[in-house]
Amino acid sequence: MKKIISAVLALTVVAGVAFAGGAKDTSNVALNKDKPLVFFNRQPSDPTTGAIDMASMNWNAKTYYVGFDAAGGGAVQGKLITDYLAAADAAVIDRNGDGTIAYVLCIGDVGHNDSKARTEGIRRALGTWNGSTDPTVKKEGSVTVGGKTFKVVELEGKAMTGTDGSTWNANAATEAMGNWATKFGRQIDLVVSNNDGMAMGCLQASNFPAGVPIFGYDANADAIEAIGAGKLSGTVSQNVDAQAAGTLQVIRNLLDGLTGADVYSKGFTAADQYGNKITATVEYKADQKGLFALNGPVNAANWKQYTAGTRDAGIKQSTAAKKKVLLTIYNSADNFLSSSYLPALYYYAPLMGIDLTVVQGDGQNEASCLDKFTNFNNFDAFAINMVKTNSGRDYTDKLKY
Ligand code: BGC
Predict the structure, then answer these.
(1) Total-model pTM
(2) Fewer beta carbons under 10 A from the terminal one: N or C of the chain?
């Protein structure tokens, strides 16, 4: 009897619920291991092969990933660049007139699926893809510039790891660009970056070769402004609003007890019970348990559409019951997450009755996030952006108890 009483007491303490008059009711108490868990932006996967970590994705029936179509985005970025070159003046682009278009590449994080997909998309478009995302493996390609065919060489590709070990580092890009400009001089005809943070970093180099086309990815506000000012040639929108709203919508659906296809269709392809529906297309892929937003090219022709903000009018204030969500961000200094994703989350969360608690890491040590991934009984659901894409288990292990 003593054992039973202490077991009931332990459960009550775990759930953090006290009932008036000492009565105990554990029937509606969710255990942490049964709560919704949504990974976003950094897909649980093998940093080397890119294979999806389905063990983490199958942690419980309420585990999902929300991101964007990385392979499709790589192709959009590649086409953005080749379209630009096709319409350009060859005499201006080939700066030293050697008949070769030479470019440098800011890779970002070699162990991140988004980064891998962009490197592949760019190299495929320019013909330098050699079947590997290894920065050192590439081949000579070809491209059309202003009606003429040119050889293409990738002079150098660099991951851009900061002195603190963080990835996608803009300062590292400034430094690398400075070195490239000194080392390669007028050989450089094109600069390509797998994100806007690093592209803007390149533009900060005091010896950036003025007028050389430069492309980023993300459509952060400062990059859009730079396109308007003629400094950046193009970027790709990964539709941050659809992703941020989508992350919260999946959580909302799971918290409302939806199951099966309702989890990824309510609020996406059909209105949810509150009348909310994300306007952009977000595709569900069952084999990855993931929802993926589509990408769009942004350049001098359409950048204005992105200046007024892209908040989705399909998400309106609802009467949804307040729920508490603990959300991690791998690096408080990441340009995309801090300047684009977080503001979008903060915009949509209150409209969906979600009370967000955000904890942020240093982009280098998983512990910087994991140590703050705690007090689970205070939360109804979890959203995770890991430092390393293969750390899913470190988070799910903590939810076991
Ligand atoms: C973005 C990068 C960002 C990274 C963080 C990517 O999808 O394009 O800018 O640094 O996510 O995980």
Answers:
(1) 0.90
(2) N
Please identify, by atom number, the ligand 1 atom nearest to the C-alpha of residue 68.
7
Cβ–ligand 1 contact at 116 (below 6 Å): no
Cβ atoms of 24 and 5 closer than 8 Å:
no
Cβ(217) – ligand 1 distance below 6 Å: yes
Distance in Å, CA 168 to ligand 1 centroid: 7
The answer to whether the CB of 341 is under 6 A from ligand 1 is no
Highest CATH level, class, for 71-237: alpha beta
Q: Where are the domains of the chain?
A: 1-30, 32-69+239-303+311-398, 71-237
Q: Does the Cβ of 73 fall within 6 Å of ligand 1?
A: no
- The amino acid present at 386, given as its one-letter code, is M
Calculate Rg over the CA atoms of the chain.
23
pLDDT in tens, 315-358: 999 999 999 999 999 999 999 999 999 999 999 999 999 999 99
Q: Say yes or no: CB of residue 336 within 6 Å of ligand 1.
A: yes
Q: Ligand 1 in contact with 334 (CB < 6 A)?
A: yes
Q: Are 193 and 53 in contact (CB under 8 A)?
A: no
295, amino acid identity: N
Convert the pLDDT of each residue in 102-161 to its tens digit.
999 999 998 898 999 999 999 999 999 998 766 677 799 999 999 999 999 999 999 999
Query: What is the layout of strands, in order, in the sheet containing 100-106?
Result: 141-145, 148-158, 100-106, 188-193, 214-215, 234-237, 296-299
> How far is the centre of ligand 1, averaged over its atoms, from the C-alpha of 195 (Å)?
7
Instruction: Find out whether 341 and 332 touch, Cβ atoms under 8 Å.
Output: no
State whether the beta carbon of 41 lies less than 6 angstroms from ligand 1: yes
338 half-sphere exposure, CB direction, 13 A CA radius = 12
CA 187 – ligand 1 centroid, Å = 29
Mean pLDDT of 28-40: 92
φ, ψ of residue 199 in degrees (nearest 5): -65, -45
